[in-house]
Amino acid sequence: MKYNIHTHHPQHSLDTLELVNQDLSKVDFSIPHFSLGIHPWYIVEAKIEEQLNWLETNLHHPNCLAIGECGLDKKIDIPWDLQEEVVVKQLLLAEKNKKAVILHVVSAYQEIIALKKKWKITVPLIVHGFNKHQQVAESLWKNGFYISFGSALLKSNRLQETFSAAPKDFLFLETDDDATVTIADLYAQAEKLHPDIAQVVEANFKRIWSKEY
Predict the structure, then answer these.
(1) Exposed / middle / buried, residue 38 (Cβ in 10 Å: 0-12, 13-18, 19+)
(2) Distances from the Cα of 94 to the Cα of 43, 99, 133, 136, angstroms
(3) Residues 200, 163: contact at Cβ < 8 Å?
(4) How high is the pLDDT of residue 141?
(5) Are 155 and 186 in contact (CB under 8 A)?
(6) How far apart, in whole angstroms, are the C-alpha atoms of residue 105 and residue 61?
(7) Between the CA of residue 36 and those of 64, 95, 152, 186, 191, what are the distances in Å?
(8) Where residue 210 falls among pLDDT bands split at 50, 70, 90?
(9) Is residue 212 over pLDDT 60?
């Protein structure tokens, strides 16, 4: 079994468990495994409380495995204080309900680490689509964050070195919003760097989601 920890384009492969990111405006509860969250790009201040209440009600759906993607992004126009307020509320919701979180982080890694510490978040936090330097990755895994690698792993030698250096207990793979790449492509690349990656990712998945799939 392969695990695609974050995708916007499910490929419905029989040998893959896909964690599908859903837009709150059009949720399909029939999708076998999905995440729900308020993405920083799409924060609308007037809708936040309504969305959070809806999220808390529906994150108990048996197919909802995680909150997200949510997070912090310094390259958008949404006010920083508002981004931080919304992600903290989702982190606390995850902590209260014992849900993992899929994180979108752009130029705000130290800030998300600080929030984890400040609010004493203990649920699994997965930084998706990681493509930064090894030093950033180290700061994440040393603070207990999981790191998910996407299509950039196929092209970047620097990222491949980071992936090779990362402790296996913190690794995941994903296709994100790249419809041209399959999870099989990523596993094939990852196997060159960690020959046992299939067992590694499966163990990490089951550590977070103890239910047998």
Answers:
(1) buried
(2) 18, 5, 28, 24
(3) no
(4) 98
(5) no
(6) 26
(7) 7, 15, 24, 24, 30
(8) confident
(9) no
Q: Which residue, chain included where needed, has tokens 């330097």?
A: 133
Q: 69: cis peptide before it, omega within 30°?
A: yes
Mean pLDDT over all residues of the chain? 96
CA distance 152 to 154: 5
Mean pLDDT for 83-109 is: 98
Structure tokens at 167: 């402790």
The answer to whether residues 30 and 22 touch, using CB atoms and an 8 Å cutoff, is: no
Q: Which two tokens stand for residue 31?
A: 């999708």
* Cα–Cα distance measured from residue 83 to residue 40, given in angstroms and rounded to the nearest whole number: 6
Give the predicted TM-score (pTM) of the model.
Answer: 0.96
What pairing do the DSSP bridges indicate for beta strands 64-73 and 34-36? parallel
Cα–Cα distance between 33 and 149 in angstroms, integer? 19
The continuous run of DSSP H or E covering 86 comes out as: helix 80-97
Q: What is the pLDDT of residue 211?
A: 60
Q: What is the pLDDT of residues 39-94, one digit of tens each?
A: 999 999 999 999 999 999 999 999 999 999 999 999 999 999 999 999 999 999 99
Q: Are residues 71 and 84 in contact, defined by beta-carbon separation less than 8 angstroms?
A: no
Return all residues near 145 (Cβ < 8 A) that are at least 6 apart: 103, 113, 116, 125, 126, 127, 170
C-alpha 209/C-alpha 213 separation (Å) is 9
